[in-house]
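Notebook entry, structure prediction.
Reason for the run: the old model in the group folder had no record of what sequence produced it. Starting over properly, with the input documented here first.
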Amino acid sequence: MLALWFGAALFFSVVVAPAAFGVLRAHGLPNASELAGAIVTRSLSVVNVAGFLIALLLLVTIFFAISRRNPISGLLTGGAIGVFQDALTGLPIGLNGIAKTLVGYAASSLGVKIDVENAGARLLVTLVFCVAHKVIYFTVARGMVNLTMHWNWPHELWSAFVNAIVGVFMFYALDRFKLRT
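New structure, fully documented this time:
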């Protein structure tokens, strides 16, 4: 997912920016540079926000799976969120669906066995499931779909750690909306 986001940002920087500057200058507009800069800035901000929102889908999957503590519910929630994410990316449908389905099932099953209401447990669980998601995604993408992907341990661990920290705060915020029984 990070590669897709980075590719889109690079595309806008390398292709859209020069094209916008060229087209606007060709029309002889006096403020062509400002207009082109505004177009590129707006495009990059949309790509950055979209990348952030798509990354939050894994954290939402983990939160609902752990809080519901029902493996079938976690499986269905993860699958639905994963297929929705696949529909947005343009990659083969099912890559995120498979990975998030397995993560949702495992998180729900773990939520039944242990208490994951404190911040330390949530940090560790989210860290483990973020790494597990990337391993499953990478395995499916390389093994079943034959996509060319490269694994980078430091990057994946750092990404999982940042997601885990964001997840702890997001889980705290989402806890306020949970119905208590």
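Summary: The mean pLDDT is 81.
The old model has been moved to the deprecated folder.
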